[in-house]
């Protein structure tokens, strides 16, 4: 790459970061729920669309996911992990119901968006954007449609859910811990996530810190809380990387995909919520904010950031989101083959 091109790319990323941080600070100052994420999303989107620069890329998102995963691990205790284990049947049921709803709506998505069946199924499955876009590329589906559909879903949920459910309670503070243990968790997670990503595992960047942190907690170590500025930086990175993917010209070129993606988001959420509402409220006594974020078919990092910001039960949101993501990602290739046959 020529030096001037490299400089332009660096300046483009720096401008995207500044726009994301400015937007996050503005929204936070006005008290908008998860303002750092939403403001960064809109700020990066404005920068990306007005300048043509990509803004924040996947490396910023991965760094934000690592930090947010480690921050989530810092509130885990043996008692909270036991509580998550008790709710495991509901988490598994939520994952299965979400996949079944997606399979049922995939033919309609294919007709509404005028795309092939492979593209439709990968667009509606409640899994991560990077994972489904990568599988679409491997299987010859339309990557741009899958990317747009998942971006629309996550953006729509991030923009609406925290505002609709409001604040639940004060966020759960982490117990007193050792900062050295937290740094060990962060460093070990970085090495393991990088190795797993190189080996082809899907999106280990937020999962590994939680697993490593839970293992350290069960082993008797306690993680200290990360400083507030690190959590803010992680939220800006996650929101900014999502905003950088919101290209207005894509919406103009694919209005049918936009409509189909919004409808699939609504049906996925409503279908899962209707089945799980009695289980979550009557059996497990889960509050509304936690219920709303736990079942939302959005990004794991975005829903965790929202849970921390509005005071929802982060471990419960983590459990539901993590299990659904793992089940969907592990079964996506098999489901694709079965559906096409």
SSE order: HHHHHHHHHHHHHHHH
Question: How many strands?
Answer: 0
Total number of helices: 16
The end-to-end span amounts to: 45 Å
> Which regions have little confidence, pLDDT < 50, spanning 5+ residues?
none
- The percentage helix is over 70%
Mean pLDDT: 83
**Helix-and-strand structural type:** mainly alpha
Description:
The chain is an all-alpha fold. Helix content is 78%, strand content 0%. It contains 16 helices and no strands. It has helices at 3-29, 35-51, 58-73, 78-86, 88-113, 117-124, 129-139, 143-165, 179-198, 207-218, 228-244, 248-253, 255-283, 288-295, 300-310, 314-340. The longest helix is centred in the last third of the chain and has 29 residues, at 255-283. It is globular, with a radius of gyration of 19 Å. The mean pLDDT is 83.
Could you list some keywords that capture this structure?
0% strand; 341 residues
Strand and helix layout:
Blueprint lengths: L2 H27 L5 H17 L6 H16 L4 H9 L1 H26 L3 H8 L4 H11 L3 H23 L13 H20 L8 H12 L9 H17 L3 H6 L1 H29 L4 H8 L4 H11 L3 H27 L1
Helix pairs in contact: 1-2, 1-11, 2-11, 3-10, 3-11, 3-15, 5-6, 5-13, 5-16, 6-7, 6-8, 6-16, 7-8, 8-13, 9-10, 13-14, 14-15, 14-16, 15-16
Task: Briefly say what this structure is.
This protein has 341 residues and is mainly α. The protein has helices spanning 3-29, 35-51, 58-73, 78-86, 88-113, 117-124, 129-139, 143-165, 179-198, 207-218, 228-244, 248-253, 255-283, 288-295, 300-310, 314-340.
């Amino acid at each position: 790459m020529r030096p001037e091109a490299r400089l332009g790319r660096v300046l483009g990323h720096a401008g995207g970061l500044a726009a994301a941080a400015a937007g996050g600070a503005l929204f936070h100052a006005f008290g908008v729920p998860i303002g750092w994420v939403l403001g960064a999303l809109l700020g990066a989107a404005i920068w990306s669309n007005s300048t043509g620069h990509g803004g924040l890329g996947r490396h910023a998102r991965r760094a934000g996911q690592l930090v947010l995963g480690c921050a989530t691990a810092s509130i885990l205790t043996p008692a909270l992990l036991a509580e998550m284990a008790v709710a495991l049947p509901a988490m598994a049921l939520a994952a299965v119901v979400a996949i079944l709803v997606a399979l049922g709506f995939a033919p309609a998505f294919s007709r509404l968006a005028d795309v092939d069946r492979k593209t439709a199924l990968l667009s509606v499955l409640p899994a991560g954007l990077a994972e489904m876009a990568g599988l679409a590329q491997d299987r010859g589906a339309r990557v741009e449609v899958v990317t747009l559909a998942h971006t629309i879903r996550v953006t729509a949920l991030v923009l609406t859910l925290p505002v609709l459910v409001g604040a639940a309670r004060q966020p759960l503070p982490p117990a007193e811990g050792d900062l050295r243990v937290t740094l060990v968790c962060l460093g070990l997670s970085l090495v393991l996530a990088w190795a797993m990503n190189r080996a082809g595992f899907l999106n280990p960047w937020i999962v590994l810190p939680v697993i490593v942190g839970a293992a350290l907690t069960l082993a008797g170590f306690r993680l200290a809380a990360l400083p507030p500025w690190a959590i803010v930086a992680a939220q800006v990175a996650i929101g900014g990387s999502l905003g950088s993917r919101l290209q207005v010209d894509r919406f103009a070129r694919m209005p049918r995909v936009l409509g189909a993606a919004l409808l699939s988001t609504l049906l996925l959420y409503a279908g899962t919520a209707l089945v799980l509402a009695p289980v979550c409220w009557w059996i497990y006594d889960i509050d509304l904010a936690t219920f709303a974020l736990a079942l939302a078919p959005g990004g794991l990092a975005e829903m965790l950031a929202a849970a921390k910001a509005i005071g929802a039960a982060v471990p419960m949101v983590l459990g539901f989101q993590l299990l659904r993501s793992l089940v969907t990602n592990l079964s996506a290739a098999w489901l694709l083959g079965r559906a096409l046959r």
